[in-house]
Amino acid sequence: SIDMLMSPDKEKDPDVIPEDSSLLTLRIRKKALERREETIIVDRACRQETLAYEMESHAIGKRPDNPTDLVEEGELLLTVNIFYPVIFQKHKDHKPYQTVLVLGSQKLTELRDSISCVSDLQIGGEFSSQPDQAPEHISKDLYKSAFFYFEGTFYNDKRYPECRDLSRTIIEWSEARDRGYGNLQSVKMEDYTFNDLSLKIGFPYLFCHQGNCEHIIIITDIRLIHHDDCLDRNLYPLLIKKHWLCTRKCFVCKMYTARWVTNKDSLAPEDPCFFCDVCFRMLHYDAEGNKLGEFLAYPYVDPGIFN
Amino acid sequence: MSSVPGLQADCEELLGAFQEADTVRFERFAELWRERRFHTIFYGRIRALERNKLTKKTLELAQQYFLPPYAFQIRVGALYLLYGLYSTQLCQPKQKIRIALKDWPEIQRFQQDLIDSQHYDAACIFRTLRLARAFHFTAMPKLLNYRTKKKIQENEFKEEFKDPSNRVNSLITNDVLEELMNIHDHYQKMKCVISADKSQPDKALSLIKDEFVITLKDITLEHQEWQQNKMKLFLNAKETDEISNKMEEETLLGSEGSERANALARIKYRSYSAVVEASKSRRHRQVKLESSESGSNYGKSPSRSKKNSRRPQPARRRDAVE
User: Fold this and answer.
1) Where is this protein primarily located (chain A) (predicted)?
2) First-to-last CA distance in chain A?
């Protein structure tokens, strides 16, 4: 039969490259392997690699418990890259991004909810005088407006009454004079699914929230759903790739992630300076909780919090 | 990310051998595959994440040969290659073959061709792949990635694999000829109808050659044969050229050694030393040599290009070879 024609004569170990191979690919790979053996002491996957592989493959082949949650045949699967707004010098060439798989029949709001950005967790306000009273409200709860921009149309999130139309400013600006941007529309995000949109692959679009936190969105791939994909609708939008950001550690103990940042601090060696909760209180407050020295303190949320 | 090193060479070598075997039988391909032990292409202690990427790239490369403008035999070879790579890959679950929406009609036509020409083994293999759910139906053929490439790699696939692009044939296809024939007959009949003698048209009405459709067909066939002969000659010439080119290269390198010493003097004197000027057909090779030495010989290139323009004789050498 056909299968027998292809299988090897005897079972060989796939880790060992055969000695007398006529394939150029294998010869090159062998050299690279030998170099690796000489230079690397312990050759195993680092935790970033394990995490990346896990993320990519953890949902493959999953089926839902509830049959109504099964993704149907003919559903489209989009691969969306959402870039981080952080602009560090080291990210000049390769901007970090996270990759999300979305179903065609899902609403835009579902994608919006799945985007985790550190600016959503910021707590505004200066709390040097009352460190224990840092409020519970994070920016995500306070400023709920957001919009997507696809192909000349702004999709605004209008689910809550406090959501404002952020795109109105832009539309008014472009209509003020003839700036050559054509007709920009503004519609509600919750009324549209991805199937309703016409998109370009590889073209940068925009997601804006918190008024000025902008993420570039690029769709890299559209394909039909496959038998081997995850078919549980509840798991979508599915995160399959995330950039690993190193967290900033406390300046004092260098162990815990920073939770406070101080400016104009007479007790700190640099401006701004990062502290974990314990070290912050030990340094800046005495046993009774009085403030020592002059400083301004803000709660800090590290971008690497999603690792 | 960049392509897998050496993979294109290996695939082209296998497909080339298959093309030379001049058959489309799967048994022949399987022999060639086993000779090279192609299934070992995935070996080498690769960890899971890297292995997924590698397999994806391998399948993507092989898939490119499956589509036009490649010759029929190459496409069948690519189908077998895809089958082989898909079955012997080490990834679990298996990586799939991406086919774009725009290519599907073409592939279905290809499958119909296979069935019509009774190449049942190829058709069976395609069906096996379909049943094994080996395809991803995508919008675009290539999965995008985000590296600012320093140099845009242009994939140069071998010319021999491509069907000779036959503009004349694509214009005057069988359908067109058939229709011309019909119209011609109709025209003749109309002429008969309106002329006095019902069996043949009036002499006054004969404005075109009666046989022109047949002549057109003959001319097209002639052109096709001529093109095939030219291809064969070109391939033969290439082989002989490669032998003679090796000798040219040696003389070139030798003379460059002396030129380096007198770089500035050359610009001044513009003397013509005994440098063998490579023929026009080898000019692309010449350019490559210069670029590798551009670091040390800035002054050399302008004088060289001046020499190129003053030497029309090499052009004639190419005709002599052909």
Assistant:
1) nucleus
2) 50
